[in-house]
Amino acid sequence: MARIMARPFDFPLDPARVALIVIDMQRDFLEPGGFGESLGNDVSRLQAIVPATARLIEGFRAAGRPVIHTRECHRPDLSDCPPAKRLRGAPGSRIGDAGPMGRILIAGEPGAEIVPELFPIAGELVIDKPGKGAFHATDLSAHLETLGVTQLVFAGVTTEVCVQTTMREANDRGFECLIAEDATESYFAEFKRAAIDMIVAQGAIVGWAAPVEAIVAGLAAEEGAKQAGSETSAEPAPAGSAPGESARAASAVSPAPIGFGAGL
Amino acid sequence: MTTTLDERIDAAFVPGGRTVASDPYPWPFDGNLKPQNTAIVVIDMQVDFCAPGGYVDSMGYDLSNTRAPIAPIAKLLEVARAKDFTVIHTREGHKPDLSDLPANKRWRSQRIGAGIGDQGPCGRILVRGEPGWEIIPELQPIAGEPIIDKPGKGSFLATDFDLVLQTKGIRNIVLCGVTTDVCVHTTMRDANDRGYECLVLSDCTGATKLENHLAALDMVKMQGGVFGAVATSDAFIAAIA
């Protein structure tokens, strides 16, 4: 057990039961020329967290702990897209319409893909989610149960929408939740600040908040202690993240290769 | 204005509504049967369960029980599609890395010599993307029909089935497929608990053992229709004609 300096008080990291969830770091939300920017958002705010998010992912991979990625997207026939969600988009740029990077928020389209810098490696779970929360209408719960995970560290975008919704879902389900403050971002600075304040309020009513550096250090300290206390050498870390290698390996899991519900 | 549950039930009844000649009550309960609120759900009509050379076949089970529903389902789908009913298909299967396969499910499947994820006669058994996991050619989905990939027996667990039904405004579910006592029943029970009005078609379902098929249909009819009602496909087709 490592203690991570966090708000509103130390987070008791259990390195045997923790997983990382990286929410919706998709091209359409982050890249210039994508759907998010076409709506008038400043995507450079979101781009800025990519390096910290990459360090966090590396920390989990090095510690041999699960990294789970989510993508907000819908079935091509929109049968999982509530009309109330679709109709709030401006005509011509609604979910399913032709966007700058393929059909907007549709599974399998280029814009729905995770940005290359943070691409999943083989064996990492990718959850395609039709809602803001990653538990709704997905198999995330079943996977976490199988993995024996009880603690979740959150990164991704946007803080007040998909990250916070998923964190609240997880909190109600009994997970201990920690948000990586510098690996999450919003198009609106004040919303990020307010969302994290709400999370840590009233004695961590939704969860804790800590910087990436503290989280990675906590994981590494545990890993080091484990190796020091063991006669045999530790398992090698999972495959590294050299860009070429990641892209190749990830093709097995992303985009989902089969059927409409393949991510589910 | 508040209403009691009984008032809401009375209000739900459609004057001169349509019902299916079914057992133990004319289905649906309120006569509200129309293409817009009714889905035909075809459960797991996959090569491994009901095609020659699939793993159920290779285990030595008599395929006639799971193949019997094919022709009636094909006829039903033809009529239902012509009338614009929603058709939804399910496939039981696991991710290639088996990360969604519970340990006890694999262990039990290995004990009978058909380990999920192991090489079977039609590719890796119950693994998504393998030939044995595909829906049989006779009942292939057509464009626009949602396919629910499910890791369990029930179609709601760890899937977006409920969301798809809600988005399409579905209230009535007509169940077909295999096997009556396992995946069809689990799905029917789950749907029933969620308030969906369910009908299972006796000739469009089948089990590996005929006794289990019959017992499963019987269970539905207990207690005034504890899980819904049972009808033949002819009766359903007559009702929507």
Quick recap:
The complex is a heterodimer of chains A (264) and B (241). Chain A has 264 residues and is an alpha/beta fold.
Describe this entry's structure for a reader:
The complex is a heterodimer of chains A (264) and B (241). Chain A is of the alpha/beta class and 264 residues long. Helix content of chain A is 35%, strand content 18%. Chain A has helices spanning 27-30, 35-38, 44-47, 50-62, 83-86, 140-147, 159-172, 189-204, 212-228, 243-250; strands spanning 2-4, 11-13, 18-23, 67-72, 98-99, 102-103, 125-129, 151-157, 176-185, 208-210. Chain A has a six-stranded parallel sheet with strand order 7-4-3-8-9-10, sandwiched between helices. Mean pLDDT of chain A is 87; it is low at 231-264. By secondary structure, chain B is of the alpha/beta class. Chain B has one domain: Rossmann fold. Chain B is 34% helix and 17% strand. In chain B, the strands form two sheets. In chain B, strands 5-2-1-6-7-8 form a six-stranded parallel sheet, with helices on both faces. Chain B has a two-stranded antiparallel sheet with strand order 3-4. In chain B, helix 5 (70-82) packs parallel to helix 10 (233-240). The longest helix of chain B has 14 residues, at 180-193. The N and C termini of chain B lie far apart (38 Å). The chains are: A alpha/beta (264), B alpha/beta (241). The A-B interface holds A 75, 77, 79-83, 123, 125, 130-131, 136-139, 141-143, 146, 252, 257-262, 264 and B 91, 96-97, 99-102, 128-129, 144, 146-149, 151, 157-160, 162-164, 166-168.
Cα gyration radius of chain A (Å): 18 Å
Quote the distance from N terminus to C terminus of chain B: 38 Å
The number of domains of chain B: 1
Task: Provide the CATH superfamily of chain B.
Answer: Isochorismatase-like
Largest sheet of chain A: 6 strands, parallel
Report the β-strand fraction of chain A as a percent range.
15-25%
Shape descriptor of chain B: globular
Q: Detail the poorly predicted runs of chain B.
A: none
Give the number of DSSP strands of chain A. Answer: 10
Query: What's the end-to-end separation of chain A, in Å?
Result: 33 Å
Mean pLDDT of chain A: 87
List unreliable stretches of 5+ residues of chain A. Answer: 231-264
